[in-house]
Amino acid sequence: MNKIEIYDTTLRDGAQSEGINFSTSDKLKIIKLLDSLGIDYIEAGWPGANPKDEEVFKDLKNIKLKNAKITAFGCTRKANTKPENDKVLEMLLNADTEIITIFGKTWDFHVEHALCTTLDENLLMISDSIKYLISKGKRVFFDAEHFFDGYKNDEKYAIKAIKTAYNAGAKRIILCDTNGGCMSYEISEITNNVSKLISGIKLGIHAHNDSEMAVANSIAAVDSGAVQVQGTINGYGERCGNANLCSIIPNLQIKKNYEVVGEKIHDLTFIANNIAEIANVVVPSNLPYVGMSAFAHKAGIHASGVRKNSQTYEHISPDEVGNRRKILISDQAGTASIREKMQNLRIVKDVKEEDLSKIIERINKLEWKGFAFEGAEASFELLILDTLNGLPDFFQVSGFRVIGDTFIGEKNHNIITEASVKVKIDDYNIHTVAEGQGPVNALDTALRKALVEFYPEILKYKLCDFKVRILDSKDGTAAITRVTVETTDGINKWDTVGVSEDIIEASYMAITDSIMYGLILHNPNI
Predict the structure, then answer these.
(1) Would 309 be classed as within a structural domain?
(2) Type and span of the H or E element at 482
(3) What number of H helices and E strands is found in the chain?
(4) Taking the mean position of all CA atoms in its chain, how far away is CA 170?
(5) What is the full DSSP assignment across 134-152?
(6) 250-273 b/e with 16+ CB inside 10 Å = b?
(7) Beta bridge partner(s), residue 204
């Protein structure tokens, strides 16, 4: 089994994604996560490029990693400058890493039009920089920037450039599809040719995703002799992103039986989602292997097939990458979907076979009105309870009112929102009033105020997410609104949904479902 090295550049290339801005603390957290996954090399940044990267390299000296080696990234010396006088090389050495990765030009077009120097001087820049860093005790990886475009434009010069790096002592020569425009057959052919032309060379691949080919191109390069793959978690990167390691790792290890990260692959989904959380971006639900929908089944026939044998509609078992199967509840669901879904419910346990048709009929009617239970499993469970036996009589809301008053001053204005709620609990009629930051917060506060004396456990319930979706937007302000609320008690989380032409009423429905579900969860004997 051949070992393939994984080189992560999330902290440098990934940080160039639009909307991503890692702090020093963020980078250190991500480095620890990547190390726990078994990544071989982690590119921590470009020393000297900004104060944060300098701080990261400084802090890393006090952190012991179990699996990964840290690399510093930079470029070759400037044209017509001695390496010992080059500021970039000086900062790379100051980072004090065992390995340094530098990139250099291998496309003659770039040498002449971007560097504005001669082809011969560029080769000296590559050679001098690598030899100088090695003389200081460093291992050097060479990123051959724009190599594939350079090869197609002037094969002899591109080969000459990487031969120069190899002969200077670079331990890895990484072939870069920097513009992300190559096809897999080109990557395969060119990588094979390089392997044959330069005996003993150890190649890597660095692919960008501008043609949606980065993952395929990375695998094509490995099959053609590359021993190292560079990429980012979740495919983060400039423009259309870099090669997605969350797809590359399982494709190489599970599909092609290369040695990559071993058993640590079971943590892949956890790592992908944690890094996304740190980056403050959402993992696309349809991302292969690690997305929430990667193993989600909505059509009844799919759910039925998976329930009998997962291979019918899943190319791998989701637990191989730490993900899980989801059976979605919708108007496309059949009895198999309901059966499968009920295996993971918290409060609904026993449903008779003859009751399934009633549940599906109720789902169909509600989804026609705009409800969606795919992301609101708590409301789905309440629907089942209500359909079969009715909900527990914890409380009844007799009515509510929300008022917003605007106070406009010379410099600013404030909107004070007040909500009043009438609730009946057993023989008690309760009327409470509360102010809040907006109508939904005021309504939520007033309802909790009415219930807390009877159900003190609701003090633990916190709304941790609130989503609004406008349905049929052509209706403008009269459009139907769907509100989804996520609630936690500090241990459990549950999602509920409400739908109405009135956003306040939709919110009220989601909030009352949220409280009702929490009370059932914490009072299982009622």
Answers:
(1) no
(2) strand 480-488
(3) 17, 16
(4) 33
(5) HHTT-EEEEEEETHHHHHH
(6) bbbbbeeebebbeebbebbbbbbb
(7) 174, 228
CA atoms of 377 and 492, how far apart (whole Å):
13
Domain at 424, CATH number: 3.30.160
Tokens (6 digits) for 332: 């496309």
| 57 shares its domain with 183 | yes
Q: Are residues 52 and 178 in the same domain?
A: yes
Is residue 165 pLDDT above 70, yes or no?
A: yes
344: left (phi over 0), alpha (psi -120 to 50) or beta: alpha
DSSP state string for 439-470: HHHHHHHHHHHHHTTT-GGGGG-EEEEEEEEE
Name the helix (H) or strand (E) containing 7: strand 5-8
Q: How far apart are CA 478 and CA 64, in angstroms?
A: 58
Q: What is the 3-state secondary structure (H, E, C) of 184-253?
A: HHHHHHHHHHHHHHCCCCCEEEEEECCCCCHHHHHHHHHHCCCCEEEEEHHHCCCCCCECEHHHHHHHHH
What are 44's two structure tokens? Answer: 């921590």
Is residue 493 situated within a structural domain?
A: no
The residues facing 415 across adjacent strands are 406
Q: 9-23, 87-101, 385-399, 425-439: lowest mean pLDDT where?
A: 385-399
Report whether 219 contacts 248 (CB < 8 A).
Answer: yes
CB-neighbour burial class of residue 222 (10 A; exposed 0-12, middle 13-18, buried 19+): buried
Q: What is the Cα–Cα distance from 457 to 448, expressed in whole angstroms?
A: 10
Residue 367 in any domain: the answer is no
Q: pLDDT tens-digit profile of 301-330?
A: 444 555 555 556 578 888 899 987 766 554
Q: Are 205 and 175 in contact (CB under 8 A)?
A: yes
CATH number at residue 164: 3.20.20.70
What's phi and psi for 513, nearest 5 deg?
Answer: -60, -40
The torsion angles phi and psi of 50, rounded to 5 degrees, stand at: -160, 160
Mean pLDDT of the chain: 87
Indicate the pLDDT class of residue 493, thresholds 50, 70 and 90: confident
Domain holding 108, by residue range, is 5-279
What span, in angstroms and rounded, lies between the C-alpha atoms of 125 and 370?
63
96-152 pLDDT, tens digit per residue, is 999 999 999 999 999 999 899 999 999 999 999 999 999 999 999 999 999 999 999
